[in-house]
Amino acid sequence: MENIIQLRSVNKWFGEFHVLKDINFSVSEKEKVVICGPSGSGKSTLIRCINRLEEHQKGSIIVDGMTLDENTKNISAIRSEVGMVFQQFNLFPHLSILENCTLAQIWVKKKTKNESEKLAMDYLRKVQIDDQALKFPGQLSGGQQQRAAIARALCMEPKIMLFDEPTSALDPEMIKEVLDVMVDLAKGGMTMCVVTHEMGFAKEVADRVVFMDEGNIVEEKKTSDFFENPENERTKLFLSQIL
Amino acid sequence: MSFLQNKIEKFDQYLSDHPKVKFFLPQALLVVFLFIIIGYLSFNASSNLAARGIDTGFSFLNKKASFDIQFSMIEFDSSMTYGRAYLVGLLNTILVSVIGIIFATIIGFFFGILRLSTNPLASGLATCYIETLRNISLLLQIFFWYFAVLRLLPSAENSLVLFNFVYANIKGIYIPRFVWTNLSFFIYGIIFTIFFIIIFNKYASILREKTGKHLPKFLISIGLLIIIPSFVVLTFGVSLEFSHPKLEVNMGISNYIGGVSIIPELIALAFALSLYTSTFIAENVRAGILGIDKGQKEAAASIGLTKTQILKLIVIPQALRIIIPPTTNQYLNLTKNSSLAAAIAYPDIVLVFAGTALMQTGRAIEIVTITMLTYLTLSILISIFMNWYNKKVALTEK
Ligand SMILES: Nc1ncnc2c1ncn2[C@@H]1O[C@H](COP(=O)(O)OP(=O)(O)OP(=O)(O)O)[C@@H](O)[C@H]1O
Ligand SMILES: [Mg+2]
């Protein structure tokens, strides 16, 4: 299968600190990959390099046939094909949920207000908060906000969705409603890269699990192998702590 | 005893059933109490004054002031009334406050943004400017501009000439007066242009909503602002000439006549107020921009918005909400601080009315009351305007 995301020998430093060490990583179309690992291992940095919220210094990243470099045209093209969901939701507090979802359609895709509202309502219905469309983010629960953030990303009709610990800022009773939406999305055939510690979710939808530690990809296996026969000592230790 | 207790309990019950009454009753009682005290004091004062043969009341406002005011935006001479002198002072206060507010805002935004620059030289410069001027007493700054800087200007005969039409000397700064022909056509033209631009902008928004087509609103607006007035000037024979200030020698004293003169007191005061207040506004602006979570910009970038769009649609609308309320306070401070004018004899309301007029008439209570009420009114007007503006930007950016 064609690789829609392809990282070759990617290195990144924050000043002196070597965050990503010679990372080789690829994702094929419609594949679901879960990335896990201890705090500070570089998981967020890795997926943030894929839509260039972070710049890498060495190696190459190719997303949907486009190379990520200083060329700004490419960056905006890639960003409208790659949706991202953040740990802290990052909804725009001065805009209603509906406006959060139409903003980029209007200003980036140059769609009409009607068209963009129609699509936004479709996705809000999919994540089951269409009845909250006219409220502001501050009036919603954490789970509802994260679902709105997923809808906002989907409104750009991306080919790839990146999730950075989408449930770790949520109260336990709200985690399921967000995971359900993500499972639906996975079943619909979306290409997904998910940083999460929800191993239940990984077992249910992931094709592959990647374990990172100290800037390296330490282990990378098909989901069932990953949980049944982990090879690396650090993976074993991590799994024993988290399961 | 139990009867009283019963009553109190009933009253308590009533209050908790009527939260509005519970909220307003203490305040209403306080106001009534204050009125009684003020009424008692002023009755006492006026009967004391009457006993000493000093009459009270506001009739003095219609009496001849018989003093001159050095700088006035409306016609004034010593044959006019105290009421007119009050108006001159009020207008001068408003003039210096408005100039101060405008420049403090522009300079404040500039240095506030500069301080966040990633260039260490630029941010260092801004920090230095803000920390220095903010920590020097305002009165000292007024003295600095008035006595140290403006006094260095040459005498009228040797005026400093800037750009061939600004003449600066120790008596002030002189600029040409505009002499218009057919000015009204020009004004109608400008009003029409503004209307046209508003309608155009509305049209562009509707077009965007209906068809998704984005017109370069800003550029077209600027274009209209240039083209329509130029057309009006050419077809209706509007013309503008400058009456340049001319040096004239009268009884051995030379002076510039014919232009518009800006007195050094106004310049020094406006300078000091603008610069001093700008440092506080700069800090508000910095706090406002820093107050926006980094995640907001990242989320906006991740859905494909460009840097300019992020600034316009995400950062500025949120930052303004943080910046406006403390900046309103700075506007109020500036207006009140303008009364330091008295120290360099800029004829503001305090110098003219609460100073000269009070000395001459002895109506301390009346004049101080009027002056206080005037400042109170100015403050309330500024607050109302800024609240309205804040509400406007707090509404969603369309
Ligand atoms: N902007 C930055 N400047 C300097 N160091 C950074 C920056 N962002 C992250 N780091 C450092 O890089 C390392 C990797 O960070 P990253 O956020 O990718 O880790 P993570 O695996 O996502 O951890 P977590 O599970 O805590 O989210 C951490 O040690 C972090 O302190
Ligand atoms: Mg992280």
In short:
With 243 residues, chain A is an alpha/beta fold.
Helix content of chain B: 55-70%
SSE order of chain B? HHHHHEEEEHHEEEEHHHHH
Proportion of β residues of chain B? 5-15%
What is the H/E string of chain A? Answer: EEEHEEHEHHHEHEHEEHH
Helices of chain B, by number, come to: 12
Write out the distinct hetero groups bound to the structure. adenosine-5'-triphosphate, magnesium ion
Low-confidence stretches of chain A: none
Q: Count up the helices of chain A.
A: 9
What fraction of residues of chain A sit in β-strands? 25-35%
Output the radius of gyration of chain A.
18 Å
Largest sheet of chain B, in brief, is: 4 strands, antiparallel
- The side-by-side strand order for the widest beta sheet of chain A comes to 6-7-8-3-9-10
**Structural class based on helices, strands and sheet pairing of chain B:** alpha+beta
- Count of the domains of chain B: 2
How would you describe what is shown here?
The complex is a heterodimer of chains A (about 240) and B (about 400). Chain A is α/β, with parallel strands linked by helices and about 240 residues long. Chain A has nine helices and ten strands. Chain A has helices at about 45-50, 70-80, 95-105, 115-125, 140-155, 170-185, 200-205, 225-230, 235-240, and strands spanning about 5-15, 15-30, 30-35, 60-65, 65, 80-85, 160-165, 190-195, 210-215, 215-220. In chain A, the strands form two sheets. Chain A has a six-stranded mixed sheet with strand order 6-7-8-3-9-10, with helices on both faces. In chain A, helix 6 links the parallel strand 7 and strand 8 (about 190-195). The mean pLDDT of chain A is about 90. By secondary structure, chain B is α+β, with helices and mostly antiparallel strands. Chain B folds into two domains: about 20-55; about 80-175 and about 245-395, MetI-like (MetI-like fold). In chain B, about 70% of the residues lie in helices and about 10% in strands. Chain B has helices at about 1-15, 20-50, 80-115, 120-135, 140-150, 185-210, 215-235, 265-290, 295-300, 305-335, 350-360, 365-395; strands spanning about 160, 165-170, 170-175, 175-180, 240-245, 245-250, 255, 260. In chain B, the strands form three sheets. A four-stranded antiparallel sheet of chain B has the order 1-2-3-8. In chain B, a hairpin with a 2-residue loop joins strand 6 (about 245-250) and strand 7 (about 255). In chain B, helix 6 packs antiparallel against helix 7 (about 215-235). The longest helix of chain B is centred in the first third of the chain and has 34 residues, at about 80-115. The termini of chain B are far apart. The chains are: A alpha/beta (about 240), B alpha+beta (about 400). The interface of A and B includes residues 76 and 83 of A. Adenosine-5'-triphosphate (ATP) binds near residues 19, 39, 40, 42 and 44 of chain A.
